Amino acid sequence: MSLPTSIRRSMFETMVRSRFWDDRLTTQYWIDKTPVFAFGAGPLPGELHTSHGQEPVGAGVCAALSDEDMITTGHRPHHIAVARGVDLREMSAELFGKKAGLSGGRGGHMHLYDKRVNFSSSGIIAEGLGPAAGMAFARKMQKKSGVALSFLGDGAVNQGAFHEVMNIVGLHKLPFICVIEDNKWAVTTHKSMSTACERNSDRAENYGMTGEFVEGNDPELIYLATQRALERARSGEGGTILEIETVRLSGHFMGDPAGYITGEKSDYQVDPVPVYRARLIDDGILTEQEASDIERVIGAEVDEAITFALDADYPDANDALNCTFA
Amino acid sequence: MSTKEAAPWESPTSGESSSRSLTICRAQREAVDWEMEHDERVFMMGEDVAGFGGVFGTADGLGDKFGSDRVIDMPISETGWIGMAAGAAMEGMRPIIELAYVDFIGVCYNAIVNHAAKTYFMSGGQFKVPMVLISGTGAGYSNAAQHSQCLHATLAHMPGLKVVSPTNAYDAKGMMHTAIRDDNFVVFLVHKGASGVGFMGPLVKTSLSDVPQEDYTVPFGKIKVYREGTDVTIAGVGLAVHQALQSADSLAKMGISAEVVDIRSLVPLDREGIIESVAKTGRLVVADEDYHSYGVSGEVIASVIERDATIFKAPPQRVCIPDVSIPFSRPLEYSILPLEERITSAALKTIENV
Ligand SMILES: Cc1ncc(C[n+]2csc(CCOP(=O)(O)OP(=O)(O)O)c2C)c(N)n1
Ligand SMILES: [Mg+2]
Question: I want to staple A93 with a disulfide (CB 3.0 to 4.6 A). Which of A97, A145, A277, A309 is the partner?
Fold first, then answer.
């Protein structure tokens, strides 16, 4: 089964956009953070969890969605936000703490909110699940369409919220997709040291949901699996636990050299961006020239977003006192 | 006015050359190490503690030394393993558990306050729960609303748990020994900005101290006077104590003598010690990087007034986080922290307001 050319191209573009953005952010992140490392220093302060390696998950899942669908995610949100179409300039400005940011600089990298595309993220592990299920619940009550998706890591599955919310999703047959990004690591703890079963998608049956495991960090298989899950959700068949094998190519956050990751690399642990590029060229979807053109154009777009953020004004200090109550 | 530049965080050390200058984080770890060596009931649990030594290095090297039976990595299942720690303590063990950021108590507050803290009382004293929860507090590094709180009051408000927060290495080691040997549940909070972890930038000099090699205890429920003064008492918790020391320097240049008091033990609280200081100065500023309302700051002020409403020469002041969530953006965040300038102006307010 082959996907339409336009979708394959667009998933490649999304992966490139996400990767380039993370690369630019990485460069900015290290400004003023050496020789003494301090999370708080430099133009891009705070913890930074980039999505290097996980781009296929954002690109594959989000390419299958409709505008009305809703997303919550966690501390590693970039690839999903970019794929969902969160405004790149405003999101960049948010990460740099600027007034023009999505939340006027209140949220930062882990706490990205863009109501226009039904997107939000939060830094407390697995706690995006309840709100996502509630969004699905609200749509059901309002008799409106729309599927809610919550993204979380393999480590986050061990949080109580996962098990509580999955049961409720199954019980109420909510239009819901739980996307587990299985990169095998939670900070320095390997999945085999934290999780009593091999595949979390196997748990779905017991929650009255459908479980699917997608191997290989392949955006096309991810897209197709998401389509199936969306169909089930929209036709009233209820929720899916979609577990996706992916890879964390960076440390847990910037400053983590990840020396604890040793040993042989499996096939899925290769960098997925050049792999997909080569595949599209092999399949005759893109020429080498077209691929470089895409990279050049997106590179300029990302640069422009970062420049916009760097040039933007900081908020007024007093603004900290606004926005506590509606 | 006294301009005495005492530096009591360089605390009395026992013996000749057995002490070295350490960070809080290393000093507290030494106490854990010693207790694990000498008491087989003591063990450690938490996320990323065994191989990695904990996100803040509180368990550095302990996994290698004691093995995975006694330094145990846990899944991201805080309600589960904090509840387990309480159960293990009820069965005679002495767990030390690490919850990296105190903000995460949101997901396991029930295990903390309804179980670990209340079991001794509810069981009529049948079950003791001797355990220590280590956690990092504090803002100032653009980590936003969910990774920057202190939550002092959220914990200290609840009966049945002790809450301490040392601000220098000497106290950290001694108070950790005290915590582990205590028959109760102790929450041990250290401000990330003062602890000496690798990703928080330059060390806070006043948090370093000479620490003896051997074991010693620092008792709970006693304030520490960092700097003596006669005009105004500045009582602080956590990193705010170090800001208060800077503020005292600025005030000294204006000819004002500030006494800097580290509260360091929130439960039990040394009300007598604070009252004694205020009785001398007649003025009080409380600096606490927790939210302003319903907090430790209000508790301290109320404790003094309850004893003697005439003690104040001027209304006491609170320097806390105004009642808003902690923003990410640096100028927003800095404007709400209890930093030196805000403490100094609060102190001046008590002086001018005579
Ligand atoms: C309730 C809670 N506990 C602990 C943490 C600290 N923490 C942040 S990310 C993380 C690991 C997450 O691993 P995983 O879910 O696999 O996501 P990944 O980092 O691999 O994307 C941990 C333990 C947290 N943010 N919230
Ligand atoms: Mg993971």
Answer: A309
Identify the closest residue of chain B to A45 by CA–CA distance.
Answer: B142
With beta carbons under 8 A apart, name residues in chain A contacting B142.
Answer: 39-40, 45-46, 97, 108
> Does residue A76's CB lie within 6 angstroms of at least one atom of ligand 1?
yes
State the ligand closest to the CA atom of A123: 1
Q: With an 8 Å Cβ cutoff, are A39 and B143 in contact?
A: yes
**B258-262/B224-227 β-pairing:** antiparallel
According to the model, what pLDDT value does residue B17 have? 53
Considering B78, B98, B228, B259, which one is annotated as catalytic?
B78
Same CATH topology for B20-212 and B224-352: the answer is yes
Nearest one of B133, B161, B116 to B268, comparing CA atoms: B161
What pLDDT digit, counting tens, does each position of A1-10 carry?
Answer: 589 999 999 9
**Contact criterion met (CB below 8 Å) for A117 and A84:** yes
Residue ranges of domains in chain B: 20-212, 224-352
Residue type, B155: L
CA distance A44 to A96: 5
Ranges of chain B whose pLDDT falls below 50: 1-15
pTM of the predicted model as reported, rounded to 2 decimal places: 0.96
d(CA A208, CA A196): 20
Contacts with B55 from chain A: Cβ below 8 Å: 187
As a whole-number percent, the residues of chain B with pLDDT over 90 amount to 90
The Å distance, Cα A156 to ligand 1 centre, comes to: 6
Global ipTM: 0.96
Instruction: Please calculate the CA angle B11-B289-B132 and round it to the nearest 5 degrees.
Output: 60
Give yes or no for residue A155 CB within 6 A of ligand 1: yes
Which residue in chain A has the smallest CA separation from B79? A160
Q: Which residues in chain A have their CB less than 8 angstroms from residue B146's CB? A: 110-111, 122-124
- Which residue among A124, A155, A161 places its CB closest to the CB of B146? A124
Among B76, B147, B199, beta carbon nearest to A38: B199
For the question of residue B292 being annotated catalytic, the response is: no
Bridge partners of A245, per DSSP, are A182
- CATH class of the domain whose range is B20-212: alpha beta
Contact A38 B330 (CB under 8 A): no
Strands A176-182 and B284-291 come out as unpaired
Pick the CATH number of B224-352 from 3.40.50.300, 3.30.460.90, 1.20.120.450, 3.40.50.920: 3.40.50.920
b/e map B57-77, b = 16+ CB within 10 Å: bbbbebbeebeeebbbbbbbb
Per DSSP, A89 falls in state H
Is the CB of B333 less than 8 angstroms away from the CB of A320?
Answer: yes
Options 3.40.190.10, 3.40.50.970, 3.50.50.60, 3.30.2380.10; CATH for A5-312 is 3.40.50.970
